[in-house]
Structure formats: structure tokens, C-alpha cells
Write a structure and sequence with these properties.
mainly alpha, 5 helices, about 65% helix, MIT domain-containing protein, MIT_dom, MIT_dom_sf
Length: about 130
Amino acid sequence: MSSVDSKLYLYAVQEAQAAVDLDENGHYRQALNKYQRAAEILIQFVKFNKNPIMIRKCHEQIEQYLDRATVLKAHLSGPRVKRGRPSSKPGEPKEGETKEEEGLYSAEEQEIIDSISGTILTESPNVK
């Protein structure tokens, strides 16, 4: 692993750790952004890395980060009545969602849609 590779990986790990800390403390919007950023950094890392074991591990981490970001996004965009900790329970439709609505897009299409929607700013920037 070259110096640039290791720096990218370490930066992704830092972002992921920050995401977990924010997630555990209930700062879901910031955690969502950190999970997405960690996944983006790992994608860049995979482009430059030649180690197949490391690439496979990174793909697994990317999938985990994007899955958690999807859960947080659904929690944040859902009704504001219940403010509990979001959990992911695959196979169960969300409140008000039927099984037919879940299968609207293929997994690839849904991942692309999720990644695109992740690039849209949900908070106004604090520019002074």
C-alpha cells in the first residue's frame, strides 16, 4: 500500500469512526453525511489499490456504510412523531410501505438513486 493509499484508507476510517460516534449520540443527520463520505473515500481507495483482499474488505465496508446511511435517511425523512433510535430490520416493510413499493427498483438502481440523493444538500451551508 502506498502512502497515498494508506492516507485515503486512514481518512475513511476516521470518517467512519466519527459517523459511529455521531450515530450513537443521536446526531443522525451528521452521521448520515459521515457514513456517505467514508463510503466515497473507500471507493476512491479501491480505485488505486491492487490488493484483492483489501478491495473485498473495502467493498464490504462500503456496503455496510451505505446500508446504515439508507436507514438513517429513511429515519430522517420519515414522520417526526417517533424520535427513537433507527434500526434496520431487513425484510420488514417500513411503516406505511407495502412489499410492492419495496420492489419498485432493482438493487443497482436503488443504490444509484441513494448515492445521488446523498449528494443533495439537506442543510443550508453555514457560510460567513
